[in-house]
């Protein structure tokens, strides 16, 4: 029998740890789970667990992200998308609510079904990251509600309201399983479409954002990247806007989407300097939300926005030395050249509204 390479052995160990952790968290929930028991279940040492995962939180997020990845690919696309915003919200709520625990389930199984983060994100940076991720989820849902609208991102506030309703129901279901009727919640989500919500206000800081800087830098688009929305390869060589956002700045993606021209490809690259925890949290939330969208909307009606979870290739290609959870950098690409760069708050908006194109060489 051929001997496993070091990388293959490490991957096998990680898979064994994840399987053991899944059982531990399902049985005890996050708070009561023990790393020592996970190591015992995996028939490994405690050190072997920590050599693959930085701690219990990183391991828990890895289990949930893996669960979300599996769920995303388990169901085929619908034959047609709902024919109204109200029906779309109802269908989305119906899919989203399937994760809630039923009355009589054990707390541990409820935690995993719920994608619960209660007691997991116990510090301010982690909670701030979650808030931005929920804003980003609202953008994706809002774009899916009106896939052919000539005005982008008109339904984001409505999507935020819908997610607030569903997360509130999730909190009740976690602490008091059986409270609340899922069918009533679906009907409530449908009726939210009839609420008049102002959704065109521009953030005040954009008036003070630095404009994009005209440049003529060669653009070597990284290959082998995946668009998390469509599941297809992300071709970053095409003309459009690329926005690299740290997890705590993901809400700024809406600014770039609203400002972009209709023909532009807009790509959001999610970056972090903490892939073990913040990166896994981002993957969990985005993959989970996209999995719900794919069960409601046909592939042609999914958001046109492309989302790439950076594997440390895009940031260097953009000329970024270091990235963090507050990174906000954007470029406009035209004809294989970066023609505009922007950095700081409002960078996505600045690059999307940049009009300077490279001059033809004489």
The major β-sheet equals: 6 strands, mixed
Radius of gyration: 21 Å
List the helices and strands in order.
HHHHHHHHHEEHEHEHEEH
Helicity, in percent? 40-55%
Annotation, overall tally of beta strands = 6
Describe the oligomeric state of these chains in a short phrase: single chain
Domain module count:
2
Class based on secondary structure composition and strand pairing: alpha/beta
Q: Give the overall pLDDT as a whole number.
A: 88
Uncertain parts? none
Spatial sequence of strands, sheet with the most strands: 1-6-5-2-3-4
Shape: globular
Number of helices: 13
Distance between the termini: 64 Å
Q: What percentage of amino acids are in beta strands?
A: 5-15%
Structure explained in plain terms:
- The protein has 362 residues and is α/β, with parallel strands linked by helices.
- Strand 5 (328-334) and strand 6 form a beta hairpin.
- The chain is 48% helix and 10% strand.
- The model has no long low-confidence stretch (mean pLDDT 88).
- It folds into two domains: 7-72, Tetracycline Repressor, domain 2 (Orthogonal Bundle); 85-353, no CATH class.
Briefly summarize what is shown:
The chain is of the alpha/beta class and 362 residues long.
Secondary-structure blueprint:
Layout: H1 6-32, H2 35-42, H3 46-52, H4 56-72, H5 85-96, H6 107-114, H7 124-145, H8 156-175, H9 182-192, E1 213-218, E2 240-246, H10 253-259, E3 265-271, H11 275-296, E4 306-309, H12 314-317, E5 328-334, E6 337-343, H13 347-353
Helix pairs in contact: 1-2, 1-4, 1-6, 4-11, 5-9, 5-11, 7-8, 7-11, 10-13
């Amino acid at each position: 029998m051929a001997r496993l390479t070091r990388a293959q052995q490490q991957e096998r160990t990680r898979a064994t740890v994840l399987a053991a952790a899944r059982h531990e968290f399902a049985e005890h929930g996050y708070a009561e789970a023990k790393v020592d028991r996970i190591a015992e279940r995996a028939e490994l040492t405690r050190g072997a667990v920590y050599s693959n995962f930085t701690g219990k939180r990183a391991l828990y997020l890895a289990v949930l992200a893996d669960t979300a990845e599996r769920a995303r690919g388990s169901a085929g696309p619908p034959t047609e998308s709902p024919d109204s915003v109200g029906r779309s919200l109802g269908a989305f709520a119906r899919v989203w609510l399937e994760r809630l625990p039923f009355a009589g389930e054990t707390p541990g199984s409820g935690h995993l079904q719920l994608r619960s983060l209660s007691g997991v994100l116990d510090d301010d940076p982690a909670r701030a990251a979650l808030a931005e991720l929920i804003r980003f989820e609202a953008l994706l849902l809002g774009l899916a509600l009106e896939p052919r609208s000539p005005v982008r991102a008109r339904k984001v506030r409505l999507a935020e309201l819908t997610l607030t309703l569903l997360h509130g129901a999730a909190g009740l279901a976690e602490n008091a399983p059986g409270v609340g009727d899922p069918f009533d919640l679906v009907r409530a989500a449908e009726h939210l479409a009839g609420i008049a919500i102002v959704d065109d206000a521009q953030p005040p800081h954009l008036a003070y954002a630095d404009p994009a800087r005209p440049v003529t830098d060669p653009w070597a688009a990284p290959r082998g990247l995946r668009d998390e929305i469509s599941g297809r390869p992300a071709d970053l060589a095409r003309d459009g806007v690329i926005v690299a956002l740290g997890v705590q700045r993901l809400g700024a993606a809406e600014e770039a989407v609203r400002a972009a021209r209709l023909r532009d490809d807009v790509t959001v690259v999610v970056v972090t300097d903490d892939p073990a925890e913040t990166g896994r949290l981002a993957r969990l939330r985005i993959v989970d939300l996209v999995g719900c969208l794919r069960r409601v909307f046909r592939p042609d009606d999914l958001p046109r926005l492309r989302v790439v979870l950076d594997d440390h290739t895009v940031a260097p290609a953009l000329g970024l030395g270091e990235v963090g959870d507050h990174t906000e950098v954007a470029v406009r690409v035209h004809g294989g050249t970066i023609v505009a760069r922007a950095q700081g708050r409002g960078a996505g908006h600045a690059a999307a509204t940049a009009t300077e194109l490279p001059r033809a060489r004489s």
